[in-house]
Amino acid sequence: MQVFVTGATGFVGANLVRLLLKQGYQVRVLVRPESLRTNLQDLDVEIVTGDLLDPGVVKHLRGCQVLFHVAAHYSLWRTERDQLYRNNVLGTRNILKAARDASIERTVYTSSVAAIGVPDSGAIANETYQSSIEKLIGAYKQSKYLAEQEAFHAISIGQDIVIVNPSTPIGPWDLKPTPTGDMILRFLRRQMPFYLNTGLNLIHVRDVAQGHLLALEKGKTGERYILGNRNLTLQEILAQLSEITGLPEPRSGLPAWIPLTAAWIDECVLAPLGKTPSVPLAGVKMAKQKMFYDASKAVQDLGLPQTDVRVALREAVDWFIHHDYVPNWQG
After folding, report:
1. Which residue, of 61, 113, 173, 221, has the fewest CB within 10 Å?
2. d(CA 71, CA 109)
3. Are 64 and 28 in contact (CB under 8 A)?
């Protein structure tokens, strides 16, 4: 079977491509001209150069039976709102239409728990929960919600699409890195003296890749599946990183108003004056919430694996160190 993958140069996409090749699939990937191809180096894939928004992208999909639409633009900066909408919403609309025109038999669309949101009550959310778009913090989350609506619209007109909503993947091939990977790096570089009282649902990135393949094989059209594993506070995550590396964990929590104030000044006052902001306001606002999710539907219906997140954290640490993200490492 020949499959088409968008976002293959990214974190989840790179792990998915490796799994697909291991399972014997023929893999064709869409890569933008300016994208780094490090994550695809030495892989037996067919690379086509193009863009999600290209009206002619349909020609690249012809001959494939399956589309994995993993690509997305991730940013928490207010200045990138338009780019987020173009890439995530209009790009999803265009690639799904191209898949219909190319007679793709089944599509697995990579959404995110960002599109689901967090209950005001602080409860653990599952696939049945949905925040209103007004309550989704930041342009990125809103763009993922709108992109998911594009997928639901395509489903309503007869397209075979299964939606997966990864939580917070961790592990190898986090090239950019992701915000969670950046948090791990700041810990390794001893740049995290304090922590916020927040929480995340962590999952090994290879389990996320496996979840995509399981969604292709077992997922129901029109359903969405949270690909997650364990809910942990940031303090618990840092404690595990301390055990893995031997580095001391931060002992003091930081009141949310301090980074909120700093981020607001940074992004809303200094950035318009020409200073490059260092902390996105949306990111700090998100951190005020514990982003906890229930992945039992994917575990029960798809057989989503649940690798110990400590293994994922250790592999992320090892990958970053091996790839020289932590200069002069002496841990």
Report:
1. 221
2. 9
3. yes
For residue 125, give the DSSP letter.
B
**Catalytic site residue 290?**
no
pLDDT score of 323 more than 60:
yes
pTM greater than 0.70? yes
pLDDT digits (tens, 9 = 90+) for 226-244: 999 999 998 899 999 999 9
Task: Tell me phi and psi for residue 295, to 5 degrees.
Answer: -100, 20
Please state, in angstroms and rounded to a whole number, the distance separating the CA atoms of residues 269 and 266: 6
Rounded (10°) angle between helices 11-22 and 205-218 = 60
Can you tell me the distance from the alpha carbon of 210 to that of 198, in angstroms, rounded to the nearest whole number? 27
The class (CATH top level) of 2-176+202-231+291-309 is: alpha beta
What's the pLDDT tens digit per position in 172-216?
999 999 888 988 998 898 877 666 678 899 999 999 999 999 999
Choosing from 22, 59, 97, 144, the catalytic residue is 144
**What residue ranges do the domains of the chain occupy?**
2-176+202-231+291-309
In Å, how far are 68, 132, 159, 199 from 77, measured between CA atoms?
27, 21, 33, 21
Q: Is the dihedral of CA 198, 78, 33, 111 positive or negative?
A: positive
Q: Residue written as tokens 């191809």?
A: 37
